[in-house]
Amino acid sequence: MPAQRRLHLGAFMRPVSIHTGAWRYPGAFPDANFNIAHLRRFIRKLEEGKFDAFFMADHLAVLNMPIEALKRSHTVTSFEPFTLLSAFAGATERIGLVGTASTTFDAPFHIARRFASLDHISGGRAGWNIVTTSNPDAALNFGHDEQTEHAARYRRAREFYEVVTGLWDSFADDAFVRDTASGFYFDPERMHVLDHKGEHFSVRGPLNIARPVQGWPVIVQAGASDDGRQLAAETAEVVFTAVNSIEAGRAFYTDVKARVEKAGRSRDHLKILPGALVVVGDSLDEARETRARLDGLVHEASAIAALSIALGVDASSFDPDGPLPEVPHTNASKSGRERAIALARAENLTVRQLAQRLGGYGGLSFVGTPQTIADAMEEWLVTEGSDGFNVMFPFVPEGLDAFVDKVVPELQRRGIFRRDYEGTTLREHLGLPRPPNRFFPDA
Amino acid sequence: MPAQRRLHLGAFMRPVSIHTGAWRYPGAFPDANFNIAHLRRFIRKLEEGKFDAFFMADHLAVLNMPIEALKRSHTVTSFEPFTLLSAFAGATERIGLVGTASTTFDAPFHIARRFASLDHISGGRAGWNIVTTSNPDAALNFGHDEQTEHAARYRRAREFYEVVTGLWDSFADDAFVRDTASGFYFDPERMHVLDHKGEHFSVRGPLNIARPVQGWPVIVQAGASDDGRQLAAETAEVVFTAVNSIEAGRAFYTDVKARVEKAGRSRDHLKILPGALVVVGDSLDEARETRARLDGLVHEASAIAALSIALGVDASSFDPDGPLPEVPHTNASKSGRERAIALARAENLTVRQLAQRLGGYGGLSFVGTPQTIADAMEEWLVTEGSDGFNVMFPFVPEGLDAFVDKVVPELQRRGIFRRDYEGTTLREHLGLPRPPNRFFPDA
């Protein structure tokens, strides 16, 4: 009998809550996203809850949103991932530390070196979320007037990944002999000079740091496009995805796992973790009221803008207190439009309520009791909708504490989540192999 | 009566010892330069000794030295500065954290953001050692076939500094109102868009992080050339220098402080800290024997190479056990040649001993008892040879522990070093003002 599959849980923590109203919720820390003492408390609580990893998204600009929305956003001031995750390495012992680093505006040597250093500092807990940056405001911060087109960004990302992993393999694990008698600190025969010359990069190497504890930090990706799925299938070990329903989750899971096998890899060596906002209550009604109260804190301007984007029409002329009127078909995304309409009907929402739902967080959410949330997560796991979740909290600290104190024990009771860490590295938490060194396969 | 001037002490810790034989010394930790637990112990000890700052040099390549020297070097694997200093922020409370970041191969937005993040994470203890990179091996790691020439590197560095400090000033200190009632997280009127367009950089801004705790992290430089001195006089708050004698120290001090005043700044707002290797013994003889034993661990090939460079002639044909022969004049640096000859005569050194001295560490050193070392440091302070030192340890942990346990109390007894930290930020330790925000002078 095969061992029972278990959930893997990441905590999506930049921002500390994806919900735009989170910082205003009664009892929430308004400055949580930018307070090191609060953040240290959160990651320690997540480690108490045996989470696989703390996950940091990243942005290379004050986000490109209208000023009316921007001035209400708690993401405008944030810590930088390498510095924050390194600070956390000393504050925790087991939880993984996944940071986002873009391949669009940085150099492979810097990225390889910083993740290797974080991996050594944390005893093998680093993960690299590889992204490409399409935000035009970010391009302007790096001297680019025009954004690189999508396919070119992905070609660059692919080569960037090859260079970074090649640099990580600069030294065999046994290179550093430190023989005080002979005076040999390392064996040059166990050092490889990469000498990469490609379309985008020319990088000599070697890296000036020993091979990471994990061989390579865990490779994480979030691309959903065809290019993104293919890159993930070939290179990623964790995929964060934004599917909105269990049906969409299963379709994504089936597609990506098939691509993984086609690429000659084991399907178990890539874990699929959809993002999910989780709102916990002692009763279903209480959880729904919490969600409604939270959505009610979303400013109407941002809310109507989000609804207009979803529907593909200007929603500002709709009666906010009335039901959603008939919406004409447009060239906008059909799935977004249909989802919004279905949501309004299913929950009997007014235009304002629907707009605030989408403006707060329009993606996948589990709103219920510890039992109903565990039911849903178990169904996703058992029916191959996912290998776990990248959990988002509605507000902090309460929403995070509720998940760790109430949902985690219920998952553990069912045997679908660890009761304690069994290894020390992020790879061990995720059940991923340590990659062999391509230049020193014997080491 | 003016307050008594006091020494400022940095600890030069990358590598943990500048001396190439350090890792082989009996009782030393051979892996100290790359062991996070050891390094955490060292910085805590330095904080116990009330040091102003922990200082990390940096290199962007496995150093360009012959393989015979390289394989004996403990610097070949090292932590990256942003990650290591961030890890230290949580392990310490007061000591400053100075990291080196080159302006030659990185983007101002990244550097501004990472130092701002480190400054917030550490509660205002960050310092930026601004360097330009001339190592041709480093250039090859970033796709450059040729090294940029000296003056061009300095022009780029100057503009880089302007952009970074401009980005740090993106927000007024009072910008983040976090008003849960109105929903305004920050006041857009208190945000400045830099819109820099210059010779080397086009950077829009704003930075996506609040203004650093210190306003700006402390600006540190080490340039000794005319360009370097002038840049330091205009922009630096700490200068690390490699002068080799108190006379050279006074000449440098007089020149740079005059340039500072000519640039319209207070001479007290730039601190000059020469690097100095300090070897402590209970007697003068014991200290000298320690130094000789340490120098004896330097490999002859590296030693003779260092001597040849200093003299400007090939020293490999000299009798290693004989005295230094007559050396012809060449086009090489006169001061290096004269210093080597004077050193050999003054201490009656054989060719091998002289070569090992220069190959271990040829710069300024204080070798003696806590009293004679304190005498020397006091003379440098009182006669304006320096404002303190960037201390290098001969080996660790013993050399570092001896300085903190024996030399620091002697300096404190004389009233020329603090008995405890009086402030919480690096600026406060150094007696430096918090820079006003150029865009929000009222804040």
UniProtKB/TrEMBL annotation, chains A, B:
Superkingdom of the organism of origin: Bacteria
Matching InterPro entries: Diverse_substr_monoxygenases, Luciferase-like_dom, Luciferase-like_sf, NTA_MOA
UniProt cross-references to Pfam families, sorted A to Z: Bac_luciferase
Enzyme nomenclature, EC number: 1.14.14.5
Statement: the UniProt record of this protein carries the keyword Isomerase: no
Keywords, sorted A to Z: Flavoprotein, FMN, Monooxygenase, Oxidoreductase
Example of a GO MF term: alkanesulfonate monooxygenase activity
Ranges where the Luciferase-like domain occurs: 21-381
Ranges in a coiled coil: none
NCBIfam families: FMN_nitrolo (TIGR03860)
PANTHER family given in the database record: ALKANESULFONATE MONOOXYGENASE-RELATED, C2H2 FINGER DOMAIN TRANSCRIPTION FACTOR (EUROFUNG)-RELATED
Family label: Belongs to the NtaA/SnaA/DszA monooxygenase family.
Name of this chain's protein: Alkanesulfonate monooxygenase
